[in-house]
Amino acid sequence: MPFPKNIHSDYHAHIYFDESTSDEAQQLRQAVSEQFDLSVGRFNQKNVGPHLKWSFSITFTHQDFEQLIPWLEAHRRTFSVLVHALTGDDIKDHTDFAYWLGEPVPLNLSSL
C-alpha cells in the first residue's frame, strides 16, 4: 500500500473499530480532539454510508495533512484508517484518491 500523498485540498480519515475495540477507539478519538483543532465526526457504532465497520471520521485540509497523517500512523495501534480526498466525486474519493494506514477494509461503493 502506498503511503498517503498530500495532493488534494480537503480530506477525510475514517478510523474503523468494532465492539471489542470500541474503548480503544474512543481513546484515540479523544486524543485526536486534544492534539488537533479539527472536526472529529460522530462515534458511529453502526455501519454508515459505504463503511462496513463502525467508524469515526476526521475532516482536515492539506495544511493539516503533514502533521495528522504521521501522527495517526504512530497512534492508530491496530486500527485500519482510510484516508481519502474530498473532491466531490465520492466514487473516485473512496477508490482512486484513497489510501490506507493498516489493513484495507471493504467498502460498499454502491451506497455512493
Q: Could you describe the 3D structure shown?
A:
The chain has 112 residues and is of the alpha+beta class. 29% of the residues lie in helices and 24% in strands. The protein has three helices and five strands, in the order βαββαβαβ. A five-stranded antiparallel β-sheet has the order 2-3-1-4-5. The longest helix is centred in the first third of the chain and has 14 residues, at 22-35. It is globular. The model has no long low-confidence stretch (mean pLDDT 96).
Kindly summarize this structure in a few lines.
Helix content is 29%, strand content 24%.
| Helix and strand element order | EHEEHEHE
Named CATH topology: Alpha-Beta Plaits
Radius of gyration: 13 Å
CATH homologous superfamily (4th level) name:
DOPA-like domains
* Major β-sheet strand ordering: 2-3-1-4-5
The CATH architecture term is 2-Layer Sandwich
Low-confidence stretches: none
Main beta-sheet annotation:
5 strands, antiparallel
Dominant shape: globular
What is the class in the CATH system? Alpha Beta
Distance between the termini: 23 Å
Percent range for helical residues?
A: 25-40%
